[in-house]
TrEMBL record:
Full protein name: Siphovirus Gp157 family protein
Origin superkingdom: Bacteria
Organism the protein comes from: Methylorubrum aminovorans
Pfam families from the UniProt entry: Sipho_Gp157 (PF05565)
Entry keyword set: Coiled coil
Coiled-coil annotated residue ranges, if any: 41-85
Source species taxonomy: Bacteria, Pseudomonadati, Pseudomonadota, Alphaproteobacteria, Hyphomicrobiales
Protein's UniProt keywords contain Coiled coil: yes
Amino acid sequence: MSGLANDVRVAQAIIAQIADAGIDSEDPDFATLVESECDVLERLRRIIRAARHTNAQAKALAEMLADGRDRKARLEKKADRLRAAALWALGELGQKRLEAPDFTATIGAGRPKIVITDEAALPDDVCVLKREPSKTAIAEWLAEKPCPGAEFGNSTPSLTVRTK
């Protein structure tokens, strides 16, 4: 196959892989990656830049989610402290009920708290058990002997991108 014919074949395959990845005409990267005219190597440069940019966005979003989870926890803690202050004050005033146009608050008996005195003594029926394979432990096991239910697969090539 000639160089140009191979380039065209690879370019078409790249476009098919981009479509398989769910990048369609609605995606902002679509025009840059698929519609523009360029040779196959330039298209690959654009794909790698788009992958780097997308990865950076994913990292930024992860940080925003972590910040959001932290903020949510702080807000929930604040709400709990405010409710506890209102509960205390109603108790001090001897009031069981407080009415307002937008809410009614009442003091109830509540439920007894569960206190775990010895976690190891609890029967399995009252525990949530999560069984999850440890790939690190499996790899260590396989390095020494066969492991039932697991084996080493073929390695896959990886792409390393270094920035200047």
